[in-house]
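Quick entry, no commentary yet.
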Amino acid sequence: MLYDYGCESCDYMMVDVHQSIHDEPLTTCPRCNQESLQRVIYGGLGSFVKEPKTIGGLADKNWKDMGHYKRSEIEAKSKQKKLDSASPLSSSGSATSKEINNMSQSQKEKYIITGEK
């Protein structure tokens, strides 16, 4: 049988590798010598692709590929941001409800967008 292999480390592709169906799959990439070679499975009308197809999938892949220290740095910044903003209203304008009620529609729109009275 003919198999294709793809390296997850360096994206090297091996095409039409002749192997018996009973042979163990290759694992060592000939280009980067990493144990990250995977058989590319084809079948039916389409193929099974490991690459993300959605923005969420791409975000998950990028997060997974990111180093441990970088992820913990981002998580720490996120926690600090949450602590810094005690209330979601703390960063909004300072008008009282009476002042808001006395505003015209255009003043209210400006206040919502800019936070200025």
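second:
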Amino acid sequence: MRIIVGLGNPGEEYRGTRHNIGWLALDYWLGDVHWSHNKRFNALVYEEGDTLFVKPLSFMNESGLVVRKTLDYYKLLPKNLGILKKKDADLNHVLTVVHDELDLDFGRWRLATDSSSAGHRGVQSLITHLKTQRFSRLRLGIKNELLRIHIPADKFVLQTFSAEERGRLVNMFASIDIRKL
């Protein structure tokens, strides 16, 4: 089984914001599918073959708990001594997290593995709850000129994309085959 998580924040006020690019990407790649609300994980989920797509319904900074519950349920976290979760487990073949990246120019993307959160609180939540940073991250660039003129990062990520950027998002998403990453 493979888990692909799109990070974002729940609620209408966050719909279409830069911080929700993970959710937007999953919606683009999957099209008009029926997302199920999984109360056990506190997430929207969609299963396709041996892949489970997940949109955590917690806020970004608490998304690690949702992912931990999901991996626990599917018994995808390696254990030491039968019960304790192994620290620094290699989850690259199991988990891919799609999220916004302030350090990349808008429209660019990179795949990262075994890397620190670089200050991204949603990613740090995953590292904390999973006790490893060894998972795949699809980093989607959101940096633009507004950020360069010193808008605080916490305010910038909660802004919606401009009309021009929304058009360019489609090009970025189309250049990525999430099922082959």
